[in-house]
Amino acid sequence: MDALGLLRIRVRRGINLAVRDTASSDPYVAITCGSQKVRTRVEKNNCNPVWNEDLTIYIKDLNTPIVLSVYDKDTFTGDDSMGTAQIDIKPYMDCLKMGLEGLPDGTKVGRVEPSRDNCLSDESYVVWNKGKISQDMNLRLRNVECGEVEVQIEWINLPGSKHLHK
Ligand SMILES: [Ca+2]
């Protein structure tokens, strides 16, 4: 495996997610990247679930799309879709490649505006904190009537892997 590194995706919570059962849903988040698929636990009967769960994927190619999907867990039928969003890590990776060091905690090192090409519902910042760089994103779900998901991404270098900093 010649991965560039790991991406930790903290799935914080869902906001105003779509109703897929009688009055609510049993949502969970699945993230796919190439052949990888990881998922959170199911939060029963809650359209504003708090997961606060870390999902980690290998990144081998920065061009492979990272797709977040929300589903309603059903016991006897297939799980219903509650929307999808793509996680665009390119602005974040560009900040990482700058090789920043020794900044005060909370320094904003990058800003990403919502656009037609990303799924952001709000401005998103790449932030330096305690020697680490992370980015919080509010993702507006597509292919669904409503719903947003808050995530945070953070890069983790693999020991011995090709270093990103040039
Ligand atoms: Ca259900």
Automatic annotation (TrEMBL):
Q: Where in the cell is it found?
A: Cell membrane; Nucleus
Organism listed in the record: Buddleja alternifolia
Family classification: Belongs to the plant CAR protein family.
Keywords for this entry? Answer: Abscisic acid signaling pathway, Calcium, Cell membrane, GTPase activation, Lipid-binding, Membrane, Metal-binding, Nucleus
Q: Which SUPFAM superfamilies match?
A: C2 domain (Calcium/lipid-binding domain, CaLB)
* GO biological process per UniProt: abscisic acid-activated signaling pathway
What one GO molecular function would you report for this record?
A: GTPase activator activity
One Pfam family from the record: C2
What superkingdom does the record give? Eukaryota
The residue ranges of the C2 domain are 1-105
Give the protein name, as stated in the record: C2 domain-containing protein
Output the InterPro entries linked to this UniProt entry.
C2_dom (IPR000008), C2_domain_sf (IPR035892), CAR1-11 (IPR044562)
* Any one annotated GO CC term: plasma membrane
Q: What is the lineage of its organism?
A: Eukaryota, Viridiplantae, Streptophyta, Embryophyta, Tracheophyta
